Structures are given as C-alpha cells and as structure tokens.
User: Which sequence fits this backbone?
C-alpha cells in the first residue's frame, strides 16, 4: 500500500476492500477539530457531542458527490437544543451548538447517562445537501433513536433504501478545558453499493457474507488506533483488512473554514424591512455575531442607511 508522509490527521482516505469490492472511507481529524471547538469553549459534554457530529459530517459528506454544502443537524427537547455541522464540497468544515448551560451543568451531578437521550432528548436528525439556487435541495429526516449520534446514523441507514453502510466513530479529549485542550476524532465507514464496479462475480449469499466480514473487521479497530496521529492511516487499514486485501487511494484534505463575511451579513440585513433592522440598534449600531466562528460584524447607522439606499 502507498504511504503519504506527513499526512496523518485532517484527512479522508478512500479505500477499497479488494476481494469484496466494498468501498470505504477512513477519516482522522486533529488540529481541525480542536480549532473548531476552541472557537466556542463549550462545556466538555457539549463539545464531545459536537465533535462526534463533525466527524460524522466529514465521513458522510466525503462519500457523497455534490457541489455545494452538506449539513447534519439535530433538534431536540433536551439541554442541547441544536447541533449543526456542515461541510463544503471543497472540504471546509464548521459547526456550532445551542444549549441551556444550567441544564447541562445539572447533568454533571446526576447519573452517567447516554449522551443523546440525556443531552439532546427527543427530536430528529436532518441530512441536507444544498447545491445552490438552481438545483433542488435534498433533505432526509430521521427520529433520534439510539444512545449516540452514530447509533442515530445507523438508524437512518436502516431506514434508507438507497444507503447500505456501516460506520465506527471515535472521539478523544485531552488536556482539560481552556487553551491546553485538544480534541481528536476519526471514523471508518464502509459502503455496499448496488452496482459495485469491479466487484467479483458473487452470489447474494456470498456478498452478504463479505459484508458481514468487512463490518466485523472494521469493528475491531480501537479508539486509540483511529485517532492516533502516530499511526499511519494506511497501516491501520492494512491491519484491519489485509486478509481480504485492501487498497488505499490518494487522501482528501479537510480544513476548518467559515463562509461568513461582512458582505454576506449585509445582504442578509438588507433582506429585512428597514424599520425592523433599525429597531435592533444598540449604541447607534447593529451587531451581528456568526454562530459558527464567533466573528462580529458591526453596522453603524450610516452603514445601515447605505444598505437600504443601495
């Protein structure tokens, strides 16, 4: 198998299990994940949930063919009301959460509960692919069922007639809170497509056996192996799948990136009635904060009048 020196984190590595023809993705996030979460300084339980959502977004988004934005979002009635992560087709990721800090803190003194029921509660998970104004937006929605977000994704796979996939996600937290905090995450995902090109001629029974074997091998990966930057991704794939044979392809880089800008914010403000925007003024200015990256955009009265004059 080929190796890519220096590329051990913030990448997606496509692969193929040779004997079975099954395709997969190996994903590992390090500095990228820490950068996104450090922008928000959420409580550790919230950051952990958001880290898992970011990993799932990168894994699923990298497996799709689209030109635009792929989004995963949860809405629930628990302490964490909203989680959002999105990824552009160029591999730029961003994310944020909305939560009740008091309710989250109260859980720290209670029993150790599964994160989705305890933090998100009852609600739904939405998948969205948006390729711009001239195309129809695709959205899939499934109820939150399971103890983790990964369980909820598997529930979605089971409900879908078009997706036959399995995924294992790992998230690790190191260094406590604050500036020394580090996050790492990763995933291995395998897919069974209805028309696997190049797959050997095999009957349905043999194909099902191949699928069970590959999913079992994938499940043997340990959390420390998935997230460890000292372990080359291709070496881990070889350990898991050397018996049926595995081929890794060129890695796809991913990065932390927000799409907000002063121009975008101005365009959004101009879409509302002038009186509504003026009513939002404090200290003779309207301030808008990006929930994804924390950037602040201030518009004084003159700038607001110029928006509506234009």
Assistant:
């Amino acid at each position: 198998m080929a190796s890519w020196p220096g590329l051990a984190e913030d990448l997606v590595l496509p692969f193929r299990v040779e004997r079975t023809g099954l395709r997969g993705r190996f994903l590992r996030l390090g500095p990228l994940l820490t950068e996104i979460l450090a922008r928000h300084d959420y409580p550790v339980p919230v950051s952990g949930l958001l880290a898992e959502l970011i990993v799932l977004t990168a894994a699923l988004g990298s497996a799709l063919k689209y030109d635009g934005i792929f989004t995963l979002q949860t809405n629930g009635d628990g302490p964490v009301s909203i989680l959002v992560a999105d990824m552009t087709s160029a591999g730029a990721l961003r994310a944020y959460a909305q939560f009740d800090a008091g309710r989250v803190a109260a859980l720290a003194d209670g029993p150790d509960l599964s994160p989705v029921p305890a933090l998100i509660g009852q609600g739904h998970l939405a998948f969205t692919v948006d390729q711009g104004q001239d195309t129809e937006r695709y959205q899939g929605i499934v109820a939150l069922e399971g103890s983790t977000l990964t369980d909820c994704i598997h529930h979605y796979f089971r409900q879908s007639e078009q997706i036959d996939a399995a995924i294992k996600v790992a998230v690790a937290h190191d260094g406590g809170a604050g500036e020394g905090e580090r996050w790492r995450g990763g995933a291995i995902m395998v897919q069974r497509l209805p028309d696997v090109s190049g797959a050997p001629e095999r009957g349905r029974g043999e194909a099902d056996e191949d699928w069970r074997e590959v999913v079992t091998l994938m499940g043997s990966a340990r959390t420390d192996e998935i997230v460890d930057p000292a372990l080359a991704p291709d070496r881990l794939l070889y350990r898991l799948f050397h018996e049926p044979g595995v081929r890794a392809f060129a890695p796809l880089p991913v990065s932390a990136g927000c799409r907000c800008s002063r121009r975008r914010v101005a365009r959004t403000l101009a879409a509302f009635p002038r009186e509504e925007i003026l009513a939002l003024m404090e200290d003779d200015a309207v301030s808008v904060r990006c929930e994804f990256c924390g950037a602040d955009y201030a518009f004084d009265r003159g700038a607001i009048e110029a928006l509506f004059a234009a």
In short: The chain has a mean pLDDT of 89. The first helix runs from residue 31 to 38.
